[in-house]
Amino acid sequence: MKWPRSSRVFGSLLVLLLGVSCTTGDGGPTEISLTESDALLRPSVEPVAVELLVCKAQRYEKASKTIGSEGGSLRIGRHRLEIPRGALASRVTITGEQVIGEVNSVRLSPEGLRFAKPARLRLDYRNCSSIFPQKRVAYTDELLRVLELPPSDDYPDDEYVTAEIDHFSRYAVAY
């Protein structure tokens, strides 16, 4: 069967429009590149079944400090990082960000930095829902999927939780 010329033209235009609408335009400032999004969507560790504590949004805070083999601390909003003497072999500029959102979360960099001795991370949860289960520090990816639960100590009377960490990434309060 032979299609009328108008149907063929209409079909060709439809295919052309569908092809154009499926292409990407200029990416905005919040768009993630394909390689970055692939890394975020495919964590190297399987996610862990745990809930993140729901909180009133904390404001964005950023702090940096150069810390060496003598150790030191960094306050990131209400949260704190303690690096012990001997954990770092040389001086490194440490940056911490208190991330805005419905969970209390910090991003520590340079990402992947490893310590000779574990550092101690203290996450405050005064601005979070009152939930009775013990709180934990959770190592997460950028989509806040829990990847690991380091052993944690919860201090419910003071509303903070601590854990020893051996590398930098993103961490949040979980239960």
Task: Considering the chains and any ligands shown, give keywords for the structure.
five-stranded antiparallel β-sheet, 14% helix, six-stranded antiparallel β-sheet, Chondroitinase Ac, Chain A, domain 3, mainly beta, 175 residues, single chain
* Main sheet record: 6 strands, antiparallel
> Helical content, roughly?
10-25%
Shape: globular
Alpha-carbon distance between the two ends: 66 Å
Give start-end ranges of low-pLDDT stretches. Answer: 13-43
User: Tally the helices: what do you get?
Assistant: 2
Q: What is CATH's topology name of one domain?
A: Chondroitinase Ac, Chain A, domain 3
The CATH architecture classification of one domain is Sandwich
How do you describe this structure in short?
The protein is mainly beta.
